[in-house]
Design goal:
This protein has four helices and seven strands; from the N terminus they run αββαβαβββαβ. The protein is α+β, with helices and mostly antiparallel strands. The chain starts with a helix and ends with a strand.
């Protein structure tokens, strides 16, 4: 009996490693997968899309030069709609709003120079209209008269007639400014007149065609 007992004990000890070994292998595989996943998550991806951003803070109406712009890699799923991919596309055009360093340049915040007839001495100027609801009536090509509410009451005509060049798309989010931003075509004298009312609410009336 003692011989058979020793044989059974030996066979049990031989089979035990065979039961443990697959478990250890599985644990090692799981650990390797976990490490690989951690490295993949923590390693920044070099893939992306190069878009044009402001190289420094830019004021509204700035005529853009090559030194004002740079290309930066953005994650492809975070690239804004209508973002510019080449500095040459933007160079020589003007901003319709202020930009902070690193802000992407999109077609909604760069004035369309093609809105001016060839050889025209007129200017394109961004103006923020106070009434969002009324601004929904506007379309490019319409002529409007600009008014301003005065601090001591009443209103005053700012400019008798300007032409709407483009309605600038409003950014979404809590940082978005109230009022519709439009680019208008006007003379240099009228642009100076509008500048006198900076900071005051601007309203408008649509002129007949």
């Amino acid at each position: 009996m003692g011989i058979f007992h020793r044989i059974r004990s030996s066979s049990s000890s031989w089979s035990r490693p065979s039961r443990i070994r697959p478990q250890r292998i599985l644990a090692a595989i799981c650990l390797a997968c976990a490490c690989a996943l951690a490295v993949w998550v923590l390693t920044p991806s070099s893939a992306g899309t190069a878009i044009v951003v402001a190289k420094s803070d830019l004021a509204p109406g700035t005529e853009l030069k090559a030194q004002d712009l740079t290309l930066t890699q953005f994650p492809s799923d975070l690239v804004p709609d209508k973002a510019f991919r080449s500095v040459d596309e933007v160079k020589g055009r003007a901003t319709s709003a202020g930009l902070s360093k690193g802000s992407p340049l999109t077609s909604s915040i760069v004035l369309d120079q093609q809105a001016l007839p060839k050889g025209s001495r007129d200017l394109l100027m961004p103006i923020r209209l106070a009434d969002d609801a009324s601004a929904a009536l506007l379309q490019p090509g319409q002529k409007i008269r600009l008014f301003s509410s005065l601090p001591d009451g009443g209103s005053e005509i700012v400019v008798e007639k300007v032409t709407i060049a483009r309605l600038v798309d409003k950014p979404e989010g809590i940082a978005a400014e109230s009022g519709q931003l439009v680019s208008v075509i006007l003379s240099a004298d009228d642009a100076g007149r509008v500048a006198e009312f900076a900071g005051l609410p601007i309203s408008f009336a649509i002129l007949p065609r």
